[in-house]
């Protein structure tokens, strides 16, 4: 047997976003049903290099497939200036659960962007108004692209308002999507007034207030992935229906981590987990709902589910580089 090596272009080419969204929804459902194993994300802190490593293993069993894998990812903010490398790099090892053979080693950075967008799409499908046609994006970095790519798969998005202090980043975003959507630059308040809002920034001081968002806006809070990060004002969170991806992760490093540890926000303020909504144990959006918020930290089951889609297509299309990683053991 051979292992498939898939680089960034291979992952991109074999990511069918509609299928990834469905696979991520399957993963959330499997987690809610207890058909997944996902040990806590572990960290190796490297203050001498202003960075860290994170390991994210998982196994999940969906209706007609199961999958296992582990993502090894870093966050090194000094990389772009010091080494001309990305701040975040990831490597995904995707394995056959039945015999543990490593089916693929693939770029985890592109995979992370795809599955993060897909997770926001799943939440948007269950929490946004049905006729949402406008989308705001705060933060025009690499994660912003898959937010629009994925969410436009499940809502008829026409108008897009993007806000970022980096005018060059906004120009690149507008140029990329300008032929497909009515996309323009705007303030945070203009972006937040849209039917759907995705925030994808690394800030620690909230930048979106309760007054900014529309009365029925759904917010995907995607930026917080470490203690201290916080994009949405406490007043906004307390006034919203809050849905999380995982209690342990969101209270530790998600959007709610700061107000939760300060006691401003408690478990009583959390409506439920997205997986419980997917399987129907908890209600999603109702006609009485105003603002809804999805607090996404990113789960290892999402990486495994997305890797499953990528590997199946890459194998069918004969993409990537096949090589012998594991011997016969004879």
Layout of helices and strands:
Blueprint: E1 3-6, H1 8-13, H2 17-33, E2 36-37, E3 42-46, E4 51-61, E5 66-75, H3 79-83, E6 90-95, E7 102-107, H4 108-127, E8 134-138, H5 142-154, E9 159-163, H6 167-177, E10 182-185, H7 188-192, E11 196-199, E12 218-221, H8 234-239, E13 241-244, H9 247-253, H10 257-262, E14 270-273, H11 274-278, E15 292-295, H12 300-317, E16 321-323
Parallel strand pairs: 1-7, 8-9, 8-11, 9-10, 11-12, 12-15, 13-14, 13-15
Antiparallel strand pairs: 1-16, 2-4, 3-4, 4-5, 5-6, 6-7
Molecular structure report:
This protein is of the alpha/beta class and 330 residues long. It has two domains: 3-111 and 300-323, ornithine cyclodeaminase, domain 1 (2-Layer Sandwich); 129-295, 3-Layer(aba) Sandwich (Rossmann fold). The chain contains twelve helices and 16 strands. A hairpin with a 4-residue loop joins strand 3 and strand 4 (51-61).
Summary keywords:
eight-stranded mixed β-sheet; alpha/beta; 330 residues; Rossmann fold; globular; single chain; ornithine cyclodeaminase, domain 1; eight-stranded parallel β-sheet; 16 strands; 12 helices
Please give the radius of gyration in angstroms.
19 Å
CATH homologous superfamily (4th level) name of the largest domain? NAD(P)-binding Rossmann-like Domain
In CATH's first tier, which class of the largest domain applies? Alpha Beta
> Based on helices, strands and strand pairing, what is the structural class?
alpha/beta
Low-confidence stretches: none
Looking at the overall shape, the CATH architecture of the largest domain is 3-Layer(aba) Sandwich
The biggest beta sheet is recorded as: 8 strands, mixed
Strand segment count: 16
Q: Could you tell me the CATH topology label of the largest domain.
A: Rossmann fold
Number of helices: 12
Q: What average pLDDT do the residues reach? A: 95
Q: How much of the sequence is in beta strands?
A: 15-25%
- In total, the number of domains comes to 2
Note the run of SSEs as H and E: EHHEEEEHEEHEHEHEHEEHEHHEHEHE
Distance between the termini: 14 Å
Shape field? globular
């Amino acid at each position: 047997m051979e292992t498939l090596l898939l680089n960034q272009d291979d992952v991109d080419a074999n990511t069918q976003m509609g299928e990834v969204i469905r696979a991520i929804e399957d993963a959330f459902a499997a987690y809610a049903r207890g058909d997944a194993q996902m040990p806590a994300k572990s960290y190796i802190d490297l203050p001498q290099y202003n960075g860290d490593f994170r390991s994210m293993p998982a196994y999940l069993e969906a209706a007609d497939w199961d999958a296992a894998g582990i993502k090894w990812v870093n966050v090194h903010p000094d990389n772009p200036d010091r080494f001309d490398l990305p701040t975040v790099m990831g490597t995904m090892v995707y394995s056959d659960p039945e015999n543990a053979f490593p089916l693929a080693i693939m770029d985890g950075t592109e995979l992370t962007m795809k599955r993060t967008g897909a997770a926001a799409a799943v939440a948007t499908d269950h929490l946004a108004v049905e006729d949402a046609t406008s989308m705001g994006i705060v933060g025009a970095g690499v994660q912003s692209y898959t937010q629009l790519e994925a969410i436009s798969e499940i809502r008829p998005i026409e108008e897009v308002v993007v806000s970022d202090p980096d005018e060059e980043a906004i120009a690149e975003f507008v140029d990329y999507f300008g032929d497909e959507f009515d996309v323009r630059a705007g303030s945070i308040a203009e972006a937040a007034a849209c039917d759907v809002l995705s925030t994808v920034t690394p800030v620690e001081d909230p930048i979106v207030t309760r007054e900014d968002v529309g009365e029925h806006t759904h917010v995907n809070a995607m930026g917080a992935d470490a203690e201290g990060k916080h994009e949405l004002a406490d007043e906004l969170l307390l006034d919203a229906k809050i849905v999380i991806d995982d209690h342990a992760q969101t209270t530790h490093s998600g959007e709610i981590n700061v107000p939760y540890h300060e006691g401003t926000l408690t478990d009583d303020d959390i409506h439920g987990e997205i997986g419980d909504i997917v399987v129907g144990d908890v209600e999603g959006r109702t006609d009485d709902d105003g603002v809804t918020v999805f607090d996404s930290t990113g789960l290892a089951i999402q990486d495994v589910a997305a890797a499953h889609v990528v590997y199946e297509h890459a194998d069918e299309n004969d993409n990537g580089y096949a090589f012998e990683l594991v011997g016969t053991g004879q």
